[in-house]
Design a protein that fits this description.
A three-stranded antiparallel β-sheet has the order 1-3-2. 67% of the residues lie in helices and 5% in strands. Helix 3 (84-97) packs antiparallel against helix 4 (102-121) and helix 10 (220-241) packs antiparallel against helix 11. It has 271 residues and is mostly helical. It has two domains: 2-54 and 64-217, Serine Threonine Protein Phosphatase 5, Tetratricopeptide repeat, CATH 1.25.40.10; 227-271, no CATH class. A hairpin with a 2-residue loop joins strand 2 (37-41) and strand 3.
Length: 271
């Protein structure tokens, strides 16, 4: 199944990151991430999973988890394969065994947000899932306020809810940690850019994206945001040179639609 929305990608990146971090700590390998494909086109992020939300009826698993980390890692394996409800069940078992396992709450926030996004995309009921995801993210932050994943997942969820000012605050809290983890840092910039764009603060969105690009000049999501500025300038220049030619307006409208500036896109089309 393919899901087109930015927030899922941000959560999923941090989910992938959390798995690798814990697996490394336990000297284990985890190849589950191979079952999820993420691609970026413009401001669209496509998350491709084997199925929407799989039923765990008949699910066969070998080996029994024996520790909180075992349950945590198995939960992430299940989530990547589309067994979201079973993954959430395993995360609950993980925190039963270790109530202080912050990454489990962060992963729970991510999976709940992914589930809500899938249900929303399919026009199904997702009531309460984002609220539950926020509670899990807040718990992760409470348990480990120096870990950036909780803040970034929280920002992603808040963006999905249209609570952009709160999302910016969560990203700023993550950035204030002077994160050494590049992926978490980039996700913080990406989420902050999305929130600024949601508020119509486009110049700031581009500026934040460019800050992220200083860290990773080839980051697809940030690069796409940063490039729009040049594309818009080119369209405006074409209009300035030949205001009676429709192509410049159409190109400008297309760019504005891609980055969600719909009112301006309508104005360009009307022109």
């Amino acid at each position: 199944m393919k899901i087109n929305f930015v927030t899922v990608s941000a959560v999923l990146f941090i989910l992938l990151l959390a798995v690798s971090a814990v697996s490394a700590a336990e000297n284990e390998t985890n190849s589950a991430g191979d079952s999820v494909k993420i691609s970026v086109t413009g401001d669209n992020v496509v998350v491709e999973t084997p199925a929407a939300i799989k039923s765990d009826d008949g699910l066969v698993m070998s080996g029994a988890p024996v520790s909180a980390i075992d349950y945590y890692n198995r939960a992430n394996d299940l989530a990547y394969q589309g067994y979201l409800d079973k993954a959430l069940e395993y995360l609950d078992r993980a925190v039963e065994l270790n109530p202080n396992l912050a990454v489990a709450y962060s992963a729970k926030a991510g999976i709940l947000s992914i589930k809500a996004g899938i249900l929303k995309e399919n026009g199904e009921n997702y009531d309460g899932l984002y609220d539950e995801a926020l509670k899990a993210a807040d718990k992760a932050i409470e348990l480990n306020p120096k870990q950036g994943e909780g803040y970034v997942n929280k920002a992603s969820i808040l963006n999905a809810l249209g609570r952009y000012n709160e999302a910016i605050a969560a990203c700023d809290a993550a950035l204030a940690l002077n994160l050494k983890d590049t992926e978490t840092l980039l996700a913080a910039y990406a989420n902050k850019g999305t929130a600024l764009g949601g508020l119509g603060r486009y110049d700031e969105e581009i500026a934040v994206s460019k800050e992220g690009l200083k860290i990773d000049p080839m980051n697809n999501l940030l690069l796409a945001k940063g490039e729009y500025e040049d594309a818009l300038k080119a369209a405006d220049k074409a209009i300035e040179l030949n205001p009676k030619q429709g192509e410049g307006y159409v190109n400008k409208a297309s760019i504005l639609n891609t980055i969600g500036r719909y009112n301006e896109a309508i104005a360009a089309c009307d022109a």
